Amino acid sequence: MRADESPKVFEDSMGVPVKMENELGEQTVHRLKEMGARCEGETLEVEYYYDTDSFQLASTQTWLNQHNGQWGVILAEEQALNHTQSYNTKKLEAGHSEEKKSKILNSSHEEKSETGAAFGETSNNECPEKVLDTSRTCTELSEPCSIMLHLSKCLQLPLTHTEMKSMTMKNFLNSARIQMYDSWTRTSTVKYSLPGGFSLVVERNYSIPTETASAFLMMNADVLSISSELEKMDQLCKELGLKPKASSDEQL
Predict the structure, then answer these.
(1) CA distances in angstroms from 141 to 104, 128, 233, 245, listed in the order given
(2) What is the distance of C-alpha 206 from the center of its chain?
């Protein structure tokens, strides 16, 4: 062996990722600081809400939101029915009427009313949309074309179907003078790096205010010493004040 070479003592060792799920304790954040943990970053899942200055959309029971880059409109049941009727009329005026598809849309709406089906979907490739059960109080539109079509009707904008097809949501919002007025954080994820090769990921779900934040303790454990590695993780959980994850039955 050459003088500049060192023996490979751990040549046969192998690391395997191990994760323990717990609940965040009341003193966990404080103890993380005491241990010298470093925050690696925070990711927020935020939902944004849009309307005009005078809240014209809300006055028509229409709510526009954006989440993870996806636009959505929530309509009251009466608005949803008006949207479907207006949508069929726009197709005819634009010269894109297809008798078969129109029959499918109408029959789907009638069947939904009679049988209480969960939802009906149109087969139109330009403006696909979901129509929820009439037993529910609202309907959601998720395709930009359907959204712009309905919003232009609510705000009485002089835009043709052809113009809207070529517009981006950003350009449409500018022309309609729609802007963000509020936001709400759905979830947050914070990652901490701890001494000894450990990391802790804390996830909070603000949709359920009573739910305790989840804490995932992770490390790359040595397979050849897996028992002692797991003991280290158990000990660290106690030091951080993490609580065992409650089962579904316990939560009920």
Answers:
(1) 19, 9, 47, 37
(2) 12
Under 8 Å between Cβ of 25 and 243: yes
pLDDT tens digits for range 37-68: 999 999 999 999 999 999 999 999 999 999 98
Q: Give per-residue pLDDT as tens, 205-234.
A: 998 988 999 999 999 999 888 899 999 999
- The number of beta carbons lying within 10 Å of the beta carbon of residue 113 is 14
In the DSSP assignment, the letter for residue 15 is E
- Structure tokens belonging to residue 244: 């065992």
CATH 2.60.120.200 fits 15-45+185-243, yes or no: no
CA 28 – CA 20 distance, rounded (Å): 15
Two structure tokens written together for 232: 């280290």
Q: What angle do CA 148, 55, 175 make, to 5 degrees?
A: 40
Instruction: Give Cβ neighbours of residue 78 (< 8 Å, ≥ 6 apart).
Output: 61
Give this prediction's pTM.
0.64
Please list the residues that pair with 62 across neighbouring strands.
75
Q: Which residues contact 36 (CB under 8 A, 6 or more apart)?
A: 194, 195
